[in-house]
Amino acid sequence: MTGIQALERRMPDIPMKPGRCTQVEFEYIRHGTQTLIASFNVATGEVDLATVGPTRTEADFEAHIRQLLAQCPQAPKVHLVMDCLNTHQSASLVRLAAQLESQAIDLGVKGRSGILRSMATRAAFLSVPNHRLVVHFTPKHCSWLNQIELWFSILVRKLLRRSSFTSPAHLKQKIIELIDYFNRTMAKPFKWNYTGKPLIS
Asked: In this protein, which residues make up the domain named Tc1-like transposase DDE (predicted)?
């Protein structure tokens, strides 16, 4: 989740009273943004790992995935569901996936040859089902199929929509606190209720 704004409201909220809901100040001071890279465990409903920082570079994403894999070093296979963001199909992620294989793999040269030639060839390699790290990419314009998007909507409703943050560090602290609270008290697997029936007739 990129571009999470640290907005400080210019005036405090007007509290709720009989017949009126809380009124939130619409003018704000912008203190910058943060990016949240999060891994959601669909079996437990918990956010297993969250990285909050100022950027979402290829190196940031690789470091996040390395931390995630370190949590389950003995797992025979790890399945990740992601959208088609460029950092999700990066050369560093391909190299990481290749390191997990028992035999050395010739990856080629980025932008020129082999598996590293293009985003399409990298995505194809990451999607190979018999690798230890298997990435399932959601179709374009269908990132809602990824359950982390449901959790991001919870983050927006519970924290971001009405809160006031005095700095990017304050925003980061509040996001991490919400994740800890969510994992302790609210985490449960999401229950899909879409049956596959076309949404239009």
From this structure: 10-167
Tell me the C-alpha to C-alpha distance, in Å, between residue 148 and each of 21, 38, 48, 68. 30, 8, 11, 15
Paired with 40 in beta bridges are 47
Q: Which amino acid is at 77?
A: K
pLDDT of residue 141: 84
Backbone angles phi, psi at 158, to 5 degrees: -80, -25
Pick from 188, 170, 179: which is nearest to 49 by CA?
Answer: 179
Domain parsing of the chain, residue ranges? 1-55+147-190
Which secondary-structure segment (H or E) carries 47? strand 46-53
Instruction: Please state, in angstroms and rounded to a whole number, the distance separating the CA atoms of residues 94 and 90.
Output: 6
Instruction: List the one residue out of 32, 11, 33 whose CA is nearest residue 22.
Output: 11
For the stretch 94-153, pLDDT in tens is 999 999 998 889 999 998 999 999 999 999 999 999 999 999 999 988 888 889 999 999
